[in-house]
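Here is one chain, start to finish.
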Amino acid sequence: MGRRVLRLEIPVFPERKLFWVHDPAASPDGPAAPLPPAESLISSTRDQMVVACAQEHMGVHLTIEEWDDAPPPFSDGYEDEAKCVLYLRGLLSVTDGPVAGPVIAGARLGGGVGDYGIRVYTRNRAEVLRRYAELFQLDVDPLGDEFQQVRRQLDGLEQYLIQIWRES
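Its structure:
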């Protein structure tokens, strides 16, 4: 049974309803970048992963945990799960979009250089989609105060948990 060695909690403001988790040497908008996920939570290449969100330019809550071994799988209210393996050179970056730049620019990983197992969990994604559908059914001006107040209530509601560990 593994134990958690690092935990980061940050807001991310997805561009085009996506955010990237990658090795700092990888370019999220380069030719080796993964394509946006098609009807899935993530897509990945050797050293980067792109995560699909329900919102863009609104804050989503991201928690990243590094474990010294594979953590036990759990649900704990999370709605969706995806897995992949990334090659990381001892550092991890998170970017909200190719134009926006890094939110985390090279957090040092205790596992060093190598392949990392990745699990991504999401919570409240379906609720955010439901609330957006209701919001757009309102007969209000999208640029008006009422619309913006309801939209701001969605800030931070969507949550992601990313667990990483060095593969043996």
